[in-house]
## 1
Amino acid sequence: MIVSLFGRKIREKKGITRAAVLLLIVIAILIVLLLIPVVMHYVSDLNEIGCTAGLKSAKDQVAIGVNFKGTEYSAEEVKRVVTHAMVGWDDLCPSYGTIYVIPSNVNGTPDFTLVCGIHDKDTKQRTRLNASYVLDQIRAILGEGDLSQKTYPDGVNVKLNGETIRVTPVKSELGLKRGTNATTGYEGRIIHYMVTTSGSSSKQRSELVYFVYADEDHAAVWRKDDGWTGDSYEGFSGSE
């Protein structure tokens, strides 16, 4: 009788111990899950700070004893100088954001701005720059070719902000005019293009006629006949 009671108490203690361990494990998992967004936000903030510092250092390097020809800073020359001085260009941003050189003129003095395709605070400008950069790559890959001599690709790979992105064609225009957060039925980043063919069946030629780039904030839409539109171009009157 006494042995039986003693054995039961041990089992009960073991049961309580196992339950306590399981509870601690569950609590630990919940804490980790709660901390993940905090850590990711902290890392994102650090990357943004690092990007700002990297772009400032790059601009400082250009300003140190560099004589540019002409009246404006050439994007190619700025990139060449920075790449040589800082032993690299693609890693100026810790998040590997695509870096753009925007020439400007301050009180009659040529100047330039370095902008990151991930961290630029001007979200409309960021969308415009990323869209134009991707479109230039698509144009370079597709060109205008004799379709009777080759199979037209069902998509192209482009580089943007440290990623390789597969961009596929569409048969008709999408209704995107604003960012995906403000457009029902879309989410994240959307990139597509459209081509048309002309000529005889024995000698057809391709032509890029439509391109859309939309991120969560804004959209940039290009058409052969009327150029760039979309809400990222609302209020924009200059050139980049």
## 2
Amino acid sequence: MPGRKSETIGKEAYLIEQNTQIMLKLADLLLEDNLITPEEKFRLKQLIQRGGSV
């Protein structure tokens, strides 16, 4: 069933995008509460946008 496979991939991509947006918002909140520095926020956002690969 090729339709189901592409549907599953679409759902996974959607969830990954949603998780990415949540983590980016969390980085913003950490900076607002002075729990991280602007430099740390920059590096954290880069890491999140790369998908966590180092």
